[in-house]
Amino acid sequence: MTATHHTAAPLAPLIHARMQELGCRTPEEFAQEADLSRFMVESLLEGHDAMGLPYTPSLQALVNLSHVLQRPAHELLYLLRPDALGSVVWNSN
């Protein structure tokens, strides 16, 4: 399998759109809606953690995000990791 290019913050557009729908003005307000930490939401919006490393949420965080974003968890996983087994990118290799 070949390496794939990862978007810097693949969930940011979904999070921003949902924040607007929910009337959340800050990442902290969205974090409360999603039962996530502010740090986690900010890392997802930026695509990396405070050390500059790519940010990947835990399985529980992914489930929480799927609920608040109203998207299937596997769809979010494939956005974060397009090289994951079952994704369109993986299947095309």
Set out the fold topology:
Blueprint: H1 12-22, H2 27-34, H3 38-46, H4 59-69, H5 73-80, H6 88-92
Helix pairs in contact: 2-3
Strand content: under 5%
**Structural Rg:** 13 Å
The CATH architecture would be Orthogonal Bundle
Largest sheet: none
Structural class: mainly alpha
Helix content: 55-70%
In the CATH scheme, what's the topology name? 434 Repressor (Amino-terminal Domain)
Low confidence ranges: 1-5
* CATH uppermost class: Mainly Alpha
Tell me what the structure shows:
The structure is a single chain. This protein has 93 residues and is an all-alpha fold. The protein has one domain (12-92): 434 Repressor (Amino-terminal Domain). Helix content is 56%, strand content 0%. The chain contains six helices and no strands. The longest helix has 11 residues, at 12-22. It is globular and about 40 Å long. The chain starts with 11 loop residues before the first helix and ends with a helix. Mean pLDDT is 88; it is low at 1-5.
Features:
93 residues, mainly alpha, disordered N terminus, 434 Repressor (Amino-terminal Domain), 56% helix, globular
